[in-house]
Amino acid sequence: MLLCKLIVKELASDDKLEDIFFIHYFQIFMTEGTHYTMTNGGSINSSTHLLDLLDEPIPGVGTYDDFHTIDWVREKCKDRERHRRINSKKKESAWEMTKSLYDAWSGWLVVTLTGLASGALAGLIDIAADWMTDLKEGICLSALWFNHEQCCWGSNETTFEERDKCPQWKTWAELIIGQAEGPGSYIMNYIMYIFWALSFAFLAVSLVKVFAPYACGSGIPEIKTILSGFIIRGYLGKWTLMIKTITLVLAVASGLSLGKEGPLVHVACCCGNIFSYLFPKYSTNEAKKREVLSAASAAGVSVAFGAPIGGVLFSLEEVSYYFPLKTLWRSFFAALVAAFVLRSINPFGNSRLVLFYVEYHTPWYLFELLPFILLGVFGGLWGAFFIRANIAWCRRRKSTKFGKYPVLEVIIVAAITAVIAFPNPYTRLNTSELIKELFTDCGPLESSSLCDYRNDMNASKIVDDIPDRPAGTGVYSAIWQLCLALIFKIIMTVFTFGIKVPSGLFIPSMAIGAIAGRIVGIAVEQLAYYHHDWFIFKEWCEVGADCITPGLYAMVGAAACLGGVTRMTVSLVVIVFELTGGLEYIVPLMAAVMTSKWVGDAFGREGIYEAHIRLNGYPFLDAKEEFTHTTLAADVMRPRRSDPPLAVLTQDNMTVEDIENLINETSYNGFPVIMSKESQRLVGFALRRDLTIAIESARKKQEGIVGSSRVCFAQHTPSLPAESPRPLKLRSILDMSPFTVTDHTPMEIVVDIFRKLGLRQCLVTHNGRLLGIITKKDILRHMAQTANQDPASIMFN
């Protein structure tokens, strides 16, 4: 009871969790090896040392099965004991001191390697995706490894109006039928575009299906679940890393409405997981390994957006479950190293970390807050619509025969996307290129249709800040095409996110917001030009002034739509701020992002990643979700009145055969240990996996252990008759201080304990007598039930 009060008292302070861990498990690791006494014919007492984990560790004890949750408390205490052991030996010799220094620096080494690998892979993916995207339209004859832009860099035959055309670059129509213009050329390029798109999509989904099924999707919902303590073997393995890297390039190049930024977080976490196995400090401790994965996710966002600080905040705000201060420093360092490597590779040839880096020089004005907030409203509405529509489609995919044919689904989606995208120049563009064009301000050197304004003939020289001008026919044509592109992107993104290829959501959401923002920006610009005498424009928008920047509206719209889908706030603003490099646009970004979050929350508080976690039935307790119901622990614990009695072990009255039968007849992950069936006084808790491994190990290493051997969890083995087989002592695998609550404890406190200490289970007692057990899944089922959802959906699917 004292321990329980201590936990409840300290729940408000996350900084003290390590001390709670230490107090809770201190007595387990200070337990000494003991001896048992057998009575032999009533004459001689012999003392024999039994198998004890503290003297002879059993391989496998303390590890976890696939699709199980780790015990954060036990893992933390294991690390404390390991650290104490290293410190006690480091003064014995120079070798031990070297081992101690290696252990102390291993955390920095593993995040350095993770950052190096993440930056290198991101650069490789960017270069390969750009080349394969341009391969759909043509090929560079002078150097096959050049994309379209690189092919024309060295040409002296390009013109200002047609800077993307050069003799070295040949379209497929020129190569196959020898025509550069005309209907035949258009049709041939159309056919080749669809052919390459389907080829890339088919190859991507085939590789995922055959070699690494875990390589599909964004990966962020699963990473959030893994960081909360869930085990998914192979999700961060070497095969997943290899196939995800290859298929991510193919999926982006196929032209599907997806991005590579989300999957880059998965790629970085795979790197962090693989490198953690090089260091015993992390390879043998699941909780410590998750500190590396938190740093890796920061490195992933750092290379995805060129935003190291935004990456750290993303890891803290969006994906991490346990984020101590040292993890913050290492996340920052990993993000720094990854960004440095990517900058050294310079994949886009613009000395920037991303393709769509922009800088604005025009200030924003107070009246512009109104359209910025309207863009935030649009972002919130888009986010709410997308989450509901995408989850409904994914649920239908799971429950119908359509989900059994993932290759066919990808081919159909890719075919529809390619057929509709080619005629529209804005949907034919790579999505990152589209965002770049929408973000870019119209300068004197821009030749895009979006910059086709009617120029003032009286202008004597070219200046950087061109005044607002009336829109030309090119701008109106571009707006019409952008409206069609907006509808196309909204519909196709709903059906694309969740198919069995690597698919991120950041870039499609930003593209939708950027399209809407650019349209709004042009509308406000023209309104200010033609009605500059209105009272809202009169003070700021004089005739000949550069008043409105449509590219800024595109940037704000992109942030609003991404915030509406993911419900990110602080990290999103910092990411977009690092993209633009302008401090003065933080207020418009904050206004739009907060508005999109408020509007989205009005329709449902879940972001897209939380919605997919719930759809897949992952055991994830969201720290952002509040528990407001007045139920008690007794209302949630098992067994219920209609259930069979709780499966328990007694302290010294069961045989090896009894325990093996109990394990075979039940599927529980652990069993409470009590003094006797009559008293029901709690002694501790034993995990199913540890029991199985310990019994198997004892039968191999100890003579005389048979099915009728008495199993003892007590400190001293009771006296046994001489003809009795040798007893088996398993006290060392027993958790002698499991977390307990009384049956009258409010569930909001129980939920807080589970969230902040990462518990797997909690035992319920009444005056020291065991009544039942509450597991993490019991809490999730109860929360689903109180929210009028199906409690049976809380299972790994």
UniProtKB/TrEMBL annotation:
Xref: CDD domains:
CBS_pair_voltage-gated_CLC_euk_bac, ClC_3_like
Residue ranges annotated for the CBS domain, each copy included: 637-701, 734-791
Q: From the Swiss-Prot or TrEMBL record, give the protein name.
A: Chloride channel protein
Look up and give the organism this protein is from. Otus sunia
Membrane topology of this protein: Multi-pass membrane protein
The answer to whether keyword Transmembrane applies is yes
Q: Which Pfam families match?
A: CBS, Voltage_CLC
The GO molecular function terms of this record are: ATP binding; chloride:proton antiporter activity; voltage-gated chloride channel activity
Q: Which InterPro entries match?
A: CBS_dom, CBS_dom_sf, Cl-channel_core, ClC, ClC3
Q: Name one GO cellular component term.
A: plasma membrane
Q: What is this protein's function per UniProt? A: Strongly outwardly rectifying, electrogenic H(+)/Cl(-)exchanger which mediates the exchange of chloride ions against protons. The CLC channel family contains both chloride channels and proton-coupled anion transporters that exchange chloride or another anion for protons. The presence of conserved gating glutamate residues is typical for family members that function as antiporters.
- Where's it found, cell-wise? Cell membrane; Early endosome membrane; Late endosome membrane; Lysosome membrane
Which keywords are on file for this protein?
A: Antiport, ATP-binding, CBS domain, Cell membrane, Chloride, Endosome, Glycoprotein, Ion transport, Lysosome, Membrane, Nucleotide-binding, Repeat, Transmembrane, Transmembrane helix, Transport
Q: What is its main location?
A: membrane
Q: Which family does it belong to?
A: Belongs to the chloride channel (TC 2.A.49) family. ClC-3/CLCN3 subfamily.
- What transmembrane ranges does the database entry give? 105-129, 193-215, 235-256, 263-280, 292-316, 365-387, 407-426, 478-499, 511-532, 552-577
* Domain of life from the UniProt record: Eukaryota
Entry keyword annotation includes Disulfide bond: no
